[in-house]
Design a protein that fits this description.
Blueprint (H helix, E strand, L loop, with lengths): L9 E5 L5 E5 L5 H16 L10 H8 L2 H11 L3 E4 L3 H4 L2 H8 L6 H16 L7 H11 L4 H8 L8 E4 L6 H18 L3 E4 L4 H14 L2 E5 L2 E5 L9 H14 L10 E5 L6 E4 L2 H7 L6 E3 L6 H12 L5 E4 L4 E3 L2 E4 L2 E5 L2 E8 L10 H9 L4 E5 L13 E2 L3 H13 L6 H16 L1 E3 H7 L8 H4 L9 E3 L3 E3 L1 H19 L1
Length: 493
């Protein structure tokens, strides 16, 4: 998820040398972290809610400046995402089995069943008395008419629900993500990037990385210039991803290079320059000063395609050159990643324990400790796995990778209903009482009669459901009981 250059909050000024210079607004301070914390609380309270019930403008009001607000909200999309619902999200196992017996496993299957039934009875037209014709169909499926109505449009875009992928992010990390993407957007939209005073030890590595990724490199003494390529519309953003990746990869062993250089950025009217300094290095590495890069595995794509055609990959997709990932352990560059549903696992080839610019198992442990899902691919000279770290030998090939993914990252699909209940209980802690109709709406119930089933997993220490009233916190329920006792004693007197 990269920022567009137009969405970056920035200032462009002219200097006495006749050149223009671009200065992105980078965030810092406890005040911004507090605002991000409010946004996280707002999103947590709306987990499991459909898109139409989440007001994006509310998030903008937390941060004030629209560009900064949109950027921070984009950073939150790493963790909070919209997901189309499935039948299993709103039905019990017995209902799912009953529908599966009629080959109905998805909302499109249900719509097809209804189309066939209505075509057979109504010759392709649904009379004005819609409810009367749908009621017998609902009975055939063992559903209420309201539930049938809900399931027919369950996968509609406006009914997608908010889910959280992974743990709640720290506000400080969200701010670090914003700063990274603000600087990264400038680099990706640059016509060229200059690195000053590259020493001989890193010159060969820079040339090798540029050659691998097809980036033109020229030298002026010890200063290197990486040239970007515009597309047919004159935009540098498309090939800018490769340029930025080459820059980060080349600076893995010498991150200080990111503190002395500049980028030439085409802007309306006249080109501007972005000058590298210590803030550039801090923004691009999340304040760690560390860039971690895995070793390459050039043959993996071909091997993956062959294995997928022959034996399948259990729904996992191979992504080549995934976006760099900023973590509390630094900026991570993996040659490949595997994705399924909301889960992404970085594949991390480990060739030696002490390779100058490559990965080792200590790096993998650091990235995993920071919250990233990383699967090391170990060559024979890379040492043994440690601390229960899931690991695959290169000789195991794609079959070994898929087996490890299934063993350690299967079953990771987020349960939207459980998150919705958790968010509702967080809101209950602040309000004390939530009316029954609002509870049913928040949990995606077609009718209030579904609430007892949906609240079977309710922890009584966090809330109590009173049929006909709603959801009460323990403190609210205790006060309500005391009031009833006082009222009874008053009547007895």
């Amino acid at each position: 998820m990269a920022f567009r250059l137009a969405d970056v909050k920035k200032t462009v000024r002219s200097r006495s040398d006749g050149q223009r210079y671009i200065h992105p607004k980078l965030l810092e301070g406890s005040a911004v972290s507090a605002q991000v914390g409010l946004a996280l609380a707002y999103l947590h309270a709306r987990l499991g809610r459909p898109r139409r019930e989440v007001d994006p403008e509310m998030l903008v009001r937390f941060f004030g400046d629209p560009k900064v607000a949109r950027g921070l909200v984009s950073c939150l999309r790493h963790t909070y995402r919209w997901r189309a619902q499935e039948l299993a999200d709103v039905l019990e196992a017995k209902d799912l089995a009953r529908l599966a017996a009629r080959d109905i496993r998805t909302p499109p299957d249900l719509r097809l069943f209804l189309y066939d039934a209505l075509n057979a009875r109504g010759h392709g037209f649904l009379p004005a008395e819609r409810d009367e014709h749908l009621r017998p169909l609902a009975r055939r499926l063992g559903l209420t008419p309201a539930k049938l109505d809900q399931l027919v449009a369950l996968d509609a875009e406006e009914n997608a629900v908010l889910v959280r992928v992974g743990p709640v992010p720290e506000p400080e990390h969200v701010v670090a993500l914003y700063n990274y993407h603000a600087v990264d957007a400038i680099l990706r939209n640059s016509a060229s990037v200059e690195l000053a005073r590259v020493d001989r030890a890193h010159r060969g590595e820079l040339e090798a990385v540029c050659l691998t990724h097809g980036i033109v490199l020229t030298w002026e003494g010890r200063d290197a210039r990486l040239h970007n390529q515009p597309d047919a519309f004159g935009s540098y953003a498309r090939s800018g991803l490769r340029l930025a990746r080459v820059l980060y990869a080349a600076c893995t062993t010498a991150p200080a290079l990111l503190a002395s250089g500049r980028a030439q950025v085409p802007l309306p009217g006249k080109t501007a320059f972005y000058v590298f300094d210590s803030e550039t290095l801090r923004a691009l590495t999340g304040g760690t000063g560390i860039i971690r890069r895995a070793a390459p595995w050039p043959d993996l794509r071909e091997a993956w395609d062959r294995h997928r055609a022959a034996a399948g990959t259990a729904g996992w997709r191979l992504v080549g050159a995934p976006e760099p990932v900023l973590s509390p352990a630094g900026l991570a560059l993996a040659p490949f990643a595997c994705r399924r549903d909301e889960t992404q696992v970085l594949l991390w080839p480990v060739r030696t324990e002490d390779s100058a610019g490559g990965a080792n198992l200590d790096e993998v442990l650091a990235l995993r400790a920071s919250g990233l899902d990383v699967l090391p691919i170990r060559w024979e000279d890379a040492g043994d796995a440690r601390d229960g770290l899931p690991c695959v030998r290169s000789a195991d090939g794609v079959a070994g990778i898929v087996a490890a993914l299934e063993a350690h990252w299967s079953g990771r699909r987020v349960r939207a209903g459980a998150q919705a209940l958790d968010g509702l209980l967080a809101e209950l802690g602040a309000r004390g009482f939530i009316p029954e109709a609002q509870v049913a709406d928040a949990l995606g119930c077609a009718t209030i009669e579904e609430l007892p089933m949906r609240l079977r997993a309710l922890d009584e220490r966090r809330g109590t459901y009173v049929p006909g009233l709603g959801l009460c916190s323990r403190a609210f329920a205790d006060e309500m009981r005391k009031g009833l006792r006082r009222k009874r004693r008053g009547r007895a007197a």
